[in-house]
TrEMBL record:
Full protein name: Tripartite ATP-independent transporter solute receptor, DctP family
The species this protein was found in: Halanaerobium congolense
Transmembrane domains' residue ranges: none
Family that this chain belongs to: Belongs to the bacterial solute-binding protein 7 family.
Entry annotated with the keyword Disulfide bond: no
Gene3D superfamilies in alphabetical order: Bacterial extracellular solute-binding protein, family 7
InterPro entries the UniProt entry points to: DctP_fam (IPR018389), TRAP_DctP (IPR004682), TRAP_DctP_sf (IPR038404)
NCBIfam families: dctP, TRAP_S1
Length: 335
């Protein structure tokens, strides 16, 4: 009995020692928050980022992950980074627009014809220059990750044309481009933080929303939405970003560890997200009425939202809009 007690005691001591050594080794703590839950590709890629950073910093940096808006909504988390009370987040570009106006360009409808065209522009000079502009706002843009093509869901009726959208109360991200696009189709759009969305649909405050297939499935939106349509009306990038206050405190070698891990996790994220979105569209066919638009039907949506370009071109910056469109054409010509 006495021997057994001694063994248990030494085990507890060993555990305490290990824990204290690990926490002692961490000189820097990154608290990273996102809005999606821990089944999302975004969270899986953050786990991969965490692994790379903790290993390559020899434990000098520890990364704590918080999902499902535990640390606040996208805007609140970006403000926390500016204040230095949180170290990382990964919002869609849409809520970034109030911080750096140029990010609005990525929320122009039907801007990117393919994932690869999006990668080409985001990883090219235009996308990278916008990331650089975040630094004036106390944010360090590390890499573009992927949210994906946004698809409409609703609880009222199948949607095959812009006509079917008329009168639908559609939740949008807090971004004027999204509001304008749905107004052009005759919907009643309501901007709302992601964390409030599920209960708003459940209570009928909104009839519908739009997000990639992975989000629609993994956040259980199908429990409160009966119909979905592959509108694919906007390609949403995520921006993995860090508090500049925190980043500037890191020694150069650890800044490099973070930057390289963000890029490696970007490739992991795009690959995982694309595979998951294809898989979850199939799963949604078992739980929702899925409308797959013909090319002619999709062209009707593109035509309906075209006025958004004229409405916002000057506000975004005509030169920026034209350079992105030119880069897309350049990429398409190489295919
Ligand atoms: C999650 C959001 C979400 C976005 C939205 O934090 O708000 O609908 O698509 O992914 O960023």
């Amino acid at each position: 009995m006495r021997k057994k007690l001694m063994i248990n005691l030494s085990l507890v001591l060993l555990l305490l020692l290990t824990f204290s050594v690990t926490s002692l080794a961490a000189e820097y703590t990154i608290n990273a928050g996102i809005g999606l839950n821990d089944k999302s590709a975004q969270y899986m890629s953050l786990e991969y980022f965490k692994k790379l950073v903790e290993e390559r910093s020899d434990g000098k940096i520890e990364v704590n992950l918080y999902h499902s808006s535990q640390l606040g909504d996208d805007r609140e988390m970006m403000e926390a980074l500016q204040m230095g009370t949180q170290q990382m987040t990964c919002p869609s570009t849409a809520p970034i627009a109030p911080f750096v106006n140029g990010f609005k360009v990525f929320d122009l409808p039907f801007l990117f014809p393919t994932h690869e065209a999006a990668d080409y522009v985001l990883d090219g000079p235009v996308g990278q220059n916008l990331l650089k502009q975040l630094e004036d706002e106390g944010l360090v843009g590390l890499a573009y990750w992927e949210n994906g093509y946004r698809q409409l869901t609703n609880s009222k009726r199948p949607v095959e044309s812009p006509e079917d959208v008329k009168g639908l109360k559609v939740r949008t991200m807090e971004n004027p481009m999204h509001l304008a696009a749905w107004k052009e189709m005759g919907a009643n759009p309501t901007p709302m933080a992601f964390g409030e969305l599920f209960s708003a649909m459940q209570q009928g405050v909104v009839d519908g929303q739009e997000n990639p297939w992975g989000t629609i499935y993994l956040q259980n939106f199908f429990e409160v939405q009966d119909y979905t349509t592959d509108t694919g009306h906007v390609y949403s990038p995520f921006v993995l970003m860090m508090s500049k206050q925190f980043y500037d405190k890191l020694p150069t070698d650890l800044q490099q560890v973070v930057k390289v891990a963000a890029i490696e996790a970007k490739h992991h994220n795009r690959k995982t997200n694309r595979a998951m979105n294809a898989e979850y569209l199939n799963k949604l066919k078992d739980v929702m009425e899925v409308t797959i638009l013909t090319p002619e039907q999709k062209a009707e949506f593109q035509k309906a939202v075209q006025p958004v370009y004229d409405q916002f071109k000057d506000e975004i910056g005509a030169e920026l809009v034209e350079s992105v469109q030119q880069q897309v054409e350049e990429f398409q010509a190489q295919q």
